[in-house]
Amino acid sequence: MSGTASILHADLDAFFASVEQRDNPSLRGRPVVVGLGVAMAASYEAKRFGVRTAMSSYHVRRVCPQAIFVPPRMDAYAAASRAVFDVFRQISPLVEGVSIDEAFLEVGGLWRTRGTPEAIAADLRKRVFDEVGLRITVGVARTKFLAKVASGVAKPDGLLVVPVAGERDFLYPLPVEKLWGVGTVTAQKLHSHGLRTVAQIADIDEMTLASIVGNASGRHLYALAHFEDPRQVVTGKRRGSMGAQSAMGRGLKSPGDIDTTMVALVDRVTRRLRASERRGRTILLRLRFDDFTRITRSHTLSRSTDQTAPILAASRQLLAESMPLIREQGLTLVGISVHNFDDDETADQLELPYESSPGKALDKALDEVRLKFGDAAVTRAVLLGRRDGITLPVLPEHQD
């Protein structure tokens, strides 16, 4: 086994709820739930009562009557994320954003200037708290996989180093659910064959494992159980998609309510597309129903775009085609994302009659007004009075 434990996985603790507690001292030490109809996030004080992400407010109140609900503030979370990533980049030039609240850092070349990876991780945690006011957990290991597992074990507000010589002692006693790719269904398959720990996975051959969970999953889990993860920290990696989703809670929703949510989601996504100078061709609709089943539907446009009108039209068409299922099964979540990016300059060729489209000019004007005067300065009529409080964020610009 070669290499050194020089990869850091840094993961902010209960990010959304922690930002709320940071900005409102009266919330500190209390069970905070971010979201109005559905829990987007929960503080550790709320999690101790059993509050989990995607719980309806009704179920949250049942398990935690004293929960304090606060509406999401996406701009505040994005600003906090940018500040934290600024600290990451001051620590190491090799930073790979995973999501709005977590990243991998490679610090193997910083021994002389910053000390050991453990010392660097401790410094990172202190600086994030001192400069941004947020707690962060860091796992340190030889591979990305082990570093992420280490941060999960160390939460909340912890630091855990997995030395190369101690990888087996750290990983093997853990439950199989700690392996990337093991969800509820895969875990049930493994449990049905008496496989409950990583050590038991490592004890069987790859063919046997593949016969239980399938060829691809078998190869993947076998590699992880034998400490094989060749992935390096990659910087400058652009996202392959950009999207947003809204949990809608249970109960009957009118087509108008669903369309209003769709409009808000498309507005949010297309604004971020333009801010990031990305254009995509494929529109993907995600729906979740009352029984927690999910479906996706997609449509590919004839040319890539970042304009609101064509993306909204395609989204509405996909939604219309899915309405029979929605009426039959009930809708609890809707999401929209743009894929199949084309960032080549030729992707934005002007169509006849060789002039900028009115839609593009309008989008640009609205973006400029919102940038100068704030998001609420101008909005669609259907969104007036709406608290767009349950829309989940796409990654901020620094992680594109």
From TrEMBL:
Active-site residues per Swiss-Prot or TrEMBL entry: 102
A GO biological-process term: DNA-templated DNA replication
Reactions mediated catalytically: DNA(n) + a 2'-deoxyribonucleoside 5'-triphosphate = DNA(n+1) + diphosphate
Domain of life: Bacteria
Root EC class: transferase
Localization in the cell: Cytoplasm
Any one GO molecular-function label of the UniProt entry: damaged DNA binding
Cellular component GO terms held in the UniProt record: cytosol
Annotated ranges, domain UmuC: 7-183
The enzyme's E.C. designation: 2.7.7.7
Cofactor: Mg(2+)
Subunit structure: Monomer.
PANTHER family recorded: DNA POLYMERASE KAPPA, DNA REPAIR POLYMERASE UMUC / TRANSFERASE FAMILY MEMBER
Its biological purpose: Poorly processive, error-prone DNA polymerase involved in untargeted mutagenesis. Copies undamaged DNA at stalled replication forks, which arise in vivo from mismatched or misaligned primer ends. These misaligned primers can be extended by PolIV. Exhibits no 3'-5' exonuclease (proofreading) activity. May be involved in translesional synthesis, in conjunction with the beta clamp from PolIII.
Family: Belongs to the DNA polymerase type-Y family.
Name this protein carries in UniProt: DNA polymerase IV
Source organism of the structure: Nakamurella antarctica
